[in-house]
Design goal:
The complex is a heterodimer of chains A (274) and B (252). In chain A, helix 5 (129-140) runs parallel beside helix 7 (174-187). Chain A contains eleven helices and ten strands. By secondary structure, chain A is of the alpha/beta class. Chain A is globular and about 55 Å long. Chain B is mainly α and 252 residues long. In chain B, 78% of the residues lie in helices and 0% in strands. In chain B, helix 2 (16-48) runs antiparallel to helix 8, helix 3 crosses helix 5 and helix 7 (133-163) packs antiparallel against helix 9 (189-218). The mean pLDDT of chain B is 89. Classes of the chains: A alpha/beta (274), B mainly alpha (252). Chains A and B meet through helix 4, strand 6, helix 5, helix 6 and helix 7 of A and helix 6, helix 7 and helix 11 of B.
Chain lengths: 274, 252
């Protein structure tokens, strides 16, 4: 039943980081996500204190920082699971500004261009792996049932879980669940994928298979924003590495930031996790 | 204490048709009321979980009607509404309305806790996929909450059938009413009311059995033979989809 796990974890660790020229090409590419002056407060507690961030098409942004720094909240403002209390954001041309009541349908429209993968997988436990994918396809993309099932099967095949299509989430390992969740998020053809600590809830031996799928996704050119504690993985795929602390971007830069960071907070954090 | 005459248990068998007709009516009233109570209860639960002005209405309803006895409720519906507003109901209708008024309050509480027990991440996952909030509620939150609520709703159903016994006051020919009628002829109250009690207990067992079967079907994956039959078509469908996508190419 889990025979394919070994196959996934032995995927060769191809270096997916890009050359300088490639990075330059990306920074001139179309902007998929633009955050401007994003603030978010929960009551009197301000978690984000004016964040600006631009993600270009094909770019892989890695966000890291200590727990409670606001990195997950930042990710969740991009698809408006946490609507910002100030500032504006544009995702694939759709603008959302705080207090812009005229566009009430905006969150639903905007989320259809953004895929998200959660720390706790959040698969629908009452549906099979296949149905987890056909549900959004049918309700969001209005795909007919038979066609949705075929596309869902292809999505499962892509993450190596086609044979588990009829299984319910509780019959799958954590790593398999997260791979289904990635397939599900991909099924609506998002312009950008958000990963919120996708491997943090996994047993150590299951982390590899999920990272392998993410790595493959990165190589295929998907625009990705990843919150992770997997610094090794971040170094590998990160085009733009963003260190966030106390609701602010402290430092950001290309892969070299891990060696050349200057801010003492970044240094202290990296020293602790590396 | 001496009972005059002997216990004539054959009375129950002789009057089985009348008794079972009474039982059947009691179940019918309860079943219609169960469906209505579940719908109204769900609406009340959503009201209670809404912002203040609406939530107060839901809370007030629940707290008032949870405390009203079925006897009072049915008298109020059958006689009260007729006297005050001139609306007259049949005994069946009055029974259904009386039960629905009470049990929607209980089911509202059952659904409130069940909806609260569905992890927040479920709704977030649905929204993050771009699903409309109503669709997320209907396809993600509600099915999971209903599964949690089912055992308690089953208990409510048993309570409803028992509460129909008070509807004898409006002349609904349910179990207690027909028992009274038979008793007025034979004067064997101990035998007849024991028989009535046995009927209620048997129905309670039956309802429990049915709701356990429903629970099993709602398991993920579904358990039991009934579930196997119900889900057979779906399983075959998924197998066909897997075959079409080519399981051969990924076998290792």
């Amino acid at each position: 039943m889990r025979a394919d796990r070994g196959r996934e974890t032995h995927v060769t660790h191809t270096l997916t980081s890009r050359s300088g020229a490639e990075v330059d090409a990306i920074s001139s590419a179309r902007e998929v996500v633009q955050l401007k002056g994003i603030r978010k407060s929960f009551g009197s507690n301000e978690v984000l204190r004016g964040v600006d961030l631009t993600v270009h098409a094909g770019e892989h942004v890695v966000i890291f920082g200590p727990s409670g720094s606001g990195k997950s909240t930042l990710l969740r403002t991009i698809n408006l699971l946490e609507p910002p209390t100030a500032g504006s954001l544009v995702v694939d041309g759709l603008e959302y500004a705080h207090g812009n009541a005229a566009k009430r349908g905006t969150p639903v429209q905007l989320r259809r261009t953004v895929g998200m993968v959660f720390q706790q997988f959040n698969l629908f436990p009452h549906l099979t792996a296949l149905e987890n994918i056909t549900l959004p396809l049918r309700s969001v993309r209005r795909v007919k049932r038979a066609e949705a099932e075929n596309r869902a099967a292809q999505a499962l095949k892509r993450v190596g879980l086609l044979r588990h299509a009829a299984h319910f989430p509780r019959e799958l390992s954590g790593g398999q669940q997260q791979r289904v969740a990635i397939a599900r998020a991909l099924s609506i053809d998002p312009k950008v994928m958000l990963f919120d600590e996708p491997t943090s809830a996994l047993d150590p031996e299951l982390v590899g298979e999920v990272l392998a799928v993410m790595r493959e996704l990165a190589v295929s050119g998907m625009t990705m924003v990843v919150v992770t504690h997997e610094i090794g993985f971040a170094r590998e795929i990160g085009d733009l590495n963003v260190f966030i602390d106390d609701g602010n971007i402290v430092e950001q830069g290309p892969r070299t930031i891990f060696d050349s960071c200057t801010d003492p907070r970044t240094k202290a954090f990296l020293a602790a996790v590396l | 204490m001496r009972v005059i005459g002997s216990y004539d248990w054959s009375l129950l068998w002789d009057n089985r048709g009348t008794l079972l007709a009474g039982l059947r009516l009691a179940i019918e009233v309860s079943l219609v009321a169960l469906v209505l109570s579940t719908i109204v209860g769900l609406i009340l639960a959503l009201m209670r979980m809404s912002a203040p002005p609406v939530s107060w209405i839901g809370a007030a309803y629940v707290n008032i009607f949870r405390g009203v006895p079925a006897l009072v409720s049915v008298i109020w519906v059958y006689f009260g509404l007729s006297l005050v507003l001139g609306i007259t109901f049949s005994t069946f209708q009055a029974g259904v309305i009386a039960l629905t008024l009470l049990y929607s309050a209980f089911i509202a509480e059952i659904y409130r806790s069940a909806l609260g027990a569905v992890p927040r991440g479920q709704r977030e996952a649905g929204l993050a996929l771009g699903m409309h909030p109503l669709r997320v509620f209907g396809s993600v939150t509600l099915p999971q909450a209903t599964k949690i609520a089912i055992p308690n709703i089953g208990s409510m159903f048993i309570g409803m059938v028992k509460d129909t016994s008070t509807f004898t006051v409006i002349g609904l020919t349910e179990v207690v009413r027909v028992t009274q009628n038979i008793n007025s002829t034979y004067f064997q109250p101990f035998v007849l009311y024991t028989g009535a009690a046995v009927l209620y207990v048997l129905v309670a067992f039956l309802i429990d059995f049915i709701f356990r079967a429903i629970e099993k079907v709602m398991e993920s994956p579904p358990k039991g033979r009934v579930a196997q039959v119900i889900t057979r078509r779906k399983r075959r469908r998924i197998e066909a989809v897997i075959d079409r996508a080519g399981v051969a190419s990924q076998a290792t």
